[in-house]
């Protein structure tokens, strides 16, 4: 099923509204094909989560459809029920949250409401990630939180130094901890208490940096070991972190029938909302997967700073529209389209690695680190050779000859292939 699709009216015997919590769940068995016809046969209230498997085997059949709201453990519950051959669908929580009763709300009411919302078709169905994709999403979110924490600690220490009239020559994120402490010590005379505060802030900054490095090493190692993720680095502006995030967010590419579906899912299609208070006036913000969209826009900003076919196209658009952000969003949209084709395998075989892609490989290997390479029994030279071989022959890309890019301005009659247009090597 395509991501966030409108549910099809059920043809099964029963719909089971399922409200789950970390320790308990409540299930309402509804008979009927519409909310008006639905009859609540029975409600199982606050059943211990430890009894989920035995309860499902006893009270549900493979003709019953379980529907639950997307929440903390809903995907794990859904995978457990699917393992028992019980059909499950997870509904988007944003729409269900608008359906809460104003005068009363408890688990029983929530379970019935979830079932009737599905019957009414008012809540979209979201994709249930497989175990590997879920693991990648967990790592990606942990990394994002660590990056936020690392940036926060840099800003806190910078702010404290600024309050005391000290400005370092270079940013803290570019300085080794001992070098930074030496420069701070020499900047002025510090009292014992103020120096203790600086040491405490620096210790927190170092801890955040170490955790960030740990997650980035794990992500780089995963990209190296997965030919599909590694193949994504063929695109200009995409390296290990973005490639890993693509695998974590997109998961199974077959759930997107066409490139436009992926672009819409990421929120890279121009939209606007002029209703009400006009909190969202337009552009690519306010909808879609912000986590991956922001990374693709960062990649697009990087592309605009270099020279390539896609960069030249973006710069022409920037000159025409007078907005770098608009051009970056348009380039990111083309990257998303290229990702769809690449993950579908519709690209030509890579014969040679240019200098830019070779540099990418070196940077990814450096991020893994010598100690980690030693632990897995690899050396840099051998690993580089394996990565190059994987990029050349790990997958076969079939580029359809009809998939060409024709520039709108009649400046040239020559057409470019998708690979040339999207900067694919």
Give the gist of this structure.
Helices cover 53% and strands 10% of the residues.
How many E-type strands?
8
Main-sheet strand order equals 3-2-1-4-5-6
Distance between the termini: 32 Å
* CATH domain topology of the largest domain: Nucleotidyltransferase, domain 5
Average of per-residue pLDDT values: 85
- Domain unit count: 3
Topology, pairings included?
Blueprint: E1 14-20, E2 24-31, E3 39-48, H1 52-59, E4 64-69, H2 74-83, E5 88-91, H3 93-97, H4 107-120, E6 125-126, H5 131-163, H6 177-187, H7 192-225, H8 227-231, H9 240-250, H10 259-266, H11 290-304, H12 309-321, H13 324-344, H14 355-368, H15 370-375, H16 380-393, E7 404-405, E8 416-417, H17 418-421
Parallel strand pairs: 1-4, 4-5
Antiparallel strand pairs: 1-2, 2-3, 5-6, 7-8
């Amino acid at each position: 099923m395509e991501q966030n699709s409108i549910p099809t009216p059920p043809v099964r015997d029963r719909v089971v509204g399922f409200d789950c919590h970390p320790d308990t769940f409540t299930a309402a068995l509804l008979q009927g094909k519409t909310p008006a016809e639905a009859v609540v046969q029975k409600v199982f209230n606050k059943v211990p989560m430890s009894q989920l498997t035995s309860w499902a085997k006893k009270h549900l059949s493979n003709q019953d459809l379980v529907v639950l709201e997307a929440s903390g453990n809903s995907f794990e519950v859904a995978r457990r029920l699917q393992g028992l051959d019980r059909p499950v669908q997870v509904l988007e929580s944003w729409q269900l949250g608008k359906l809460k009763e104003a005068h009363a709300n408890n688990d029983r009411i929530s379970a019935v409401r979830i079932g009737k919302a599905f019957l009414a078709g008012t809540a979209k169905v979201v994709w249930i990630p497989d175990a590997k994709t879920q693991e990648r999403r967990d790592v990606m979110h942990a990394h994002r939180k660590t990056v936020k924490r690392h940036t926060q600690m840099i800003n806190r220490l910078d702010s404290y130094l600024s309050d005391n009239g000290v400005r370092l020559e270079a940013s803290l994120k570019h300085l080794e901890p001992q070098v930074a402490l030496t420069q701070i010590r020499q900047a002025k005379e510090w009292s014992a208490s103020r120096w203790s505060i600086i040491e405490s802030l620096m210790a927190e900054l170092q801890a955040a940096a170490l955790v960030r490095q740990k997650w980035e090493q794990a992500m780089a190692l995963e990209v190296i070991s997965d030919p599909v993720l590694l193949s994504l680095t063929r695109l200009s502006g995409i390296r290990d972190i973005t490639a890993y995030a693509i695998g974590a967010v997109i998961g199974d590419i077959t759930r997107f029938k066409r490139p436009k579906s992926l672009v819409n899912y990421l929120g890279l299609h121009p939209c606007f909302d002029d209703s009400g208070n006009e909190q969202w006036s337009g552009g690519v913000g306010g909808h879609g997967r912000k986590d991956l969209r922001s990374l693709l826009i960062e990649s697009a900003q990087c592309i605009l700073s270099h020279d390539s076919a896609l960069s030249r196209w973006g710069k022409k658009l920037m000159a025409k529209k007078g907005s770098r952000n608009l051009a970056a969003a348009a380039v990111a949209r083309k990257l998303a389209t290229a990702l769809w084709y690449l993950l579908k395998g519709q690209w030509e075989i890579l014969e040679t690695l240019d200098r830019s892609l070779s540099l990418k490989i070196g940077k990814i290997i450096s991020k893994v680190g010598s100690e980690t390479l030693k632990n897995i029994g690899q050396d840099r030279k051998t690993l580089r050779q394996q990565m190059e071989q994987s990029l050349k022959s790990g997958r076969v890309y079939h580029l359809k000859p009809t998939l060409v890019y024709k520039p709108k301005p009649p400046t040239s009659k020559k057409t470019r292939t998708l690979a040339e247009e999207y900067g694919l090597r």
